[in-house]
Amino acid sequence: MNAAPPPQVEVTEYTDPLCPWAWGAAPLFARLRTAWSGGARWRRVYAILFDEDEEPAPDPAAETAWYARYVAEVCAVTGASHAPRLARVAASSWPASRVAKAAERQGPDVAEEVLRRLRASMFVRGEPADTLPLALAAARDAPGLDAARLASDAASAAVRAAVAADRAEARRPVAAAFAVVDGGPHPGRPKETPAGEWRYALPTLRLRGPGGDVLVPGWRPEEAYEAALRTVRG
What we know:
There is one protein chain. The chain is an alpha+beta fold. The chain has a single domain (9-233), classed as Glutaredoxin (3-Layer(aba) Sandwich), CATH 3.40.30.10. Helix content is 46%, strand content 13%. The chain is built from 9 helices and 6 strands, in the order βαβαααααααββββα. The chain has helices spanning 20-35, 60-78, 94-103, 108-123, 132-139, 147-154, 157-170, 175-178, 222-233; strands at residues 9-15, 40-46, 191-192, 198-199, 204-209, 212-217. The protein has a 4-stranded mixed beta sheet, sandwiched between helices. The protein has a two-stranded antiparallel sheet with strand order 3-4. The chain is globular. The mean pLDDT is 94.
């Protein structure tokens, strides 16, 4: 029997486990991953929304109250649920991103469930998985998960290097990202980080195939992603 041809389209998803816009887009992206599975290779890049070594807020309680209102406003747009109370603004995206990256080594089903649980830590329970013990605890008992292997992989230099590569890639947005002019609720232009770098807005999909290279940044309707797929398929 002949082997199936390789996928013609590569989809790169720039995301973060603790991003409210990515939380809202997750159900749509899950449908797209299923619908496109026969003709696209989907790759996640963890962009690190909350970076290490950022200056702490002078008033953590006020910052948490402000961010909780922001999350509620985002979820009002996306239709996603959110926790009635947020314990704190996440100190770092690195732990959740390392656990999510490590889970990919155990197959796509495990990776999807672990990522869902990491997101739920913030947007369902209001306790962001912003330390490695909290991120591992959030993933615990996921069906099919080897928890000991996850802990070992998440703590490894190889997984940290993979997340560092993701972070760097997300901070090299292509020129087309800066040309975005859509005035929607989440326009999708690259964001300047506290370190003075630019990174893709989250979430952003980049589709590449025989028909070209198309970005779909920010919060978009399903039709925008389907149109991008048609274009890159040529």
